[in-house]
Structure formats: structure tokens, C-alpha cells
Amino acid sequence: MSGSKDATDAKRALPTPFNQDFTGIVKRVRGKRAKTLSALVNSPKVVLYIWAGVTLINKQFGPRAQALADVAPADRPVWSGLRFLTLQAIIAEAERAAPPFLAQKGAGPFRSTWSRRDDYVNDLLSFYFHSMNYDQHYNAESRGDWLFEGMFSDAIDKTTYNETVAICELPMFRLQLVMAATAESDDEIRLFIAENYRGALDPWRKTYAEIFAHRGLQLRPGITLDQLTKILAAVVEGFAVQRLGDASADVPGDAPGGNLVGMAVMGLLSSFLEPVGTVGSRPLREEFDERFDPPK
User: Fold this and answer.
1) How many angstroms separate the CA atoms of 151 and 68, rounded?
2) Alpha-carbon span 158 to 257, nearest angstrom
3) Are 218 and 275 in contact (CB under 8 A)?
4) How many beta carbons lie within 10 A of that of residue 227, not counting itself?
5) Would 41 disulfide with which of 26, 134, 164, 208, CB 3.0-4.6 Å?
6) What is the per-residue pLDDT for 262?
7) Class in CATH terms, 131-292
């Protein structure tokens, strides 16, 4: 009885949340009987390993000044989520190459080209995320053509549905999420990602201008085309992240009509667009404040 009390007191002395009851949370430890399992999930050993895992996650994905202190700046791109790019894996892939590529055997050709694997990784990322490659991964302009056809609402439904599905399947998008989450502000990685965004947004910015002109629409005061392009990209990417993380979230849904991404985009466009020739309109913020916070 005393041992059980000591264990409970010891757990209560731990910092939050490690002092909480893990019953019903930690379920897969090796304990069969309910009483044994309840004691084990709150044991110092289990708590220790849970703490260790949390610490590693926080080092990897949180503010990492201390963790990065042990990582040389030139090594950070590899540290930032690209450990699968081992020298062995790179060399093996090069040996399997088929025409028109010229296969290379062994480590010698690689080592004679790059003195460090990290230098190679930087070059690889610079190429992979370059704007010239964006259309090779995903042709934004051809999908934007849908927005010129038929009812605007139907066109938005079709485009947003297919955009979200396509983005979720892009290795570039998945890699970008990992790199953005693990890169530090001074990493060259962020320059690569910024280059990728330029390649993604520039054609859409041009397409939006053409669509609005085609449909007789103009931006209302208080919003620029560049701002709207970034807002719409953020909405679609946000839904894509949710779809990747939760397949049951019904994002964007099973069909274009009425999908959540389309609903969000329609709400934004209805707020920021108006028919060409409209005069006297005000910025959205002014109308919003007047509607929801009227003078008392």
C-alpha cells in the first residue's frame, strides 16, 4: 500500500501534464489485467518514455535554438526532415538508372562531384523547388481554365475540388510541409520554399486577373490582386493539410458540388469582388465593423 502511495506521490510531483492520469490514454503497454495495466500506464518507466518522446518532438518541431546549436548550418537542410536521403540510398538509385540516364556505379562518381552529401542536398532542393519545375509537378494554368467556363459557382466548385485532391497527391506539397515545419528562419530551405511559392502563385495571379476581366468583375477597395492570390492559396493549402491529416474530415468531399473548399472560396470572392463599374463601395473592414460592431 505504501509503495502504491509513494508512486502516486512521485507522479504528482512531476510537471504538468506528466502528472496526469494516463489511464485510457496509454493503452498498448504490456499489461493484461485491468489492475496491472492501470498501475503500469502511470508507472515511472512509462512516464519517463512518454516524456522522452515529447522532448524529442518538441526539439524537432518547436523553437529549436538549443537543438540547432549542435547542428552546423551547412547540415541543417539534411537535419530538416531529409534524413532519408542517405548516401547509400542516393548511390543505389543512381546504379538502377535506365536510359536515357547514364547509370553510375559505386560511390566514386558521387564523391568526385560533391565533397559533402549536404552540398548535394542543397543543390537537389534548389532544383526541386525552383519555379521552373512547378508545372512539371502540377499545371496550374490548365486547371485555371475551368474558371472561365459556365456558372461561376459551378466553376469554383470544380476547380477547388480538383485543386485540393491534386495538391494532396503532390510529393512537392508533402515535402514542403515537412521542410517548412522543421526549417529554421535562417535555413536556406526557406529560400527554396519561397521560390516554389513564386512558381505556384505567379500563374494563378495572372489567371485570376484574366478571369475577373472575363466575368466583368473588379476588386473592391482595400484588397489587391496579390493579397487575394495569397489568401486563396492559403485556404486551399489549409484544407489540403486537413485532408492529409484526417481522411474522415470530408474535405473536399466526394464530388465537386458544394465542397467545403468551394464554399470558403465563394465566401471570400463574394466579399472581395464586385461588378465592374461599381462606384462608392468601401473596404470590407469598414462594412464589417458597421454591421457587426455598430455604434452604440
Assistant:
1) 52
2) 7
3) yes
4) 12
5) 26
6) 94
7) mainly alpha
Residues 129 and 172 sit within 8 Å (Cβ to Cβ): yes
Q: Smallest Cα–Cα separation from 140: which of 200, 196, 228, 198?
A: 200
pLDDT of residue 6: 64
Backbone CA torsion sign across 213, 214, 219, 225: negative
Q: Which region holds residue 216: left if phi is over 0, alpha if psi is between -120 and 50, else beta?
A: left
- Amino acid identity, residue 157? D
pLDDT tens profile 45-81: 888 888 887 776 666 555 554 555 556 665 555 555 6
Say what the pLDDT of residue 214 is: 96
Looking at residue 260, its amino acid is L
Domain boundaries, the chain: 2-61, 73-115, 131-292
Instruction: Tally Cβ neighbours within 10 Å of residue 182.
Output: 18
Strand partners, 274: 218
And the C-alpha cell for 11?
Answer: 507522479
Residues 6+ apart with CB under 8 A from 216: 275, 276
What stretches of 22-104 adopt beta strand conformation (E)?
none
Helix, coil or strand: residue 51: helix
CA angle 97, 100, 103 (to 5 degrees): 30
Q: Helix (H, G, I), strand (E, B), or coil: what is residue 272?
A: helix
Give 219's strand partners: 273
Neighbours of 123 (CB within 10 A): 12
What the block records as the C-alpha cell of 208 is 485570376
CA dihedral (181, 182, 186, 189) positive or negative: negative
User: Which parts of 39-115 are beta strand (E)?
Assistant: none
pLDDT attached to residue 1: 46
Measured distance CA(231)–CA(229) in Å, rounded:
5
Q: How far apart are CA 136 and CA 225, in angstroms?
A: 25
Amino acid, res. 211: I
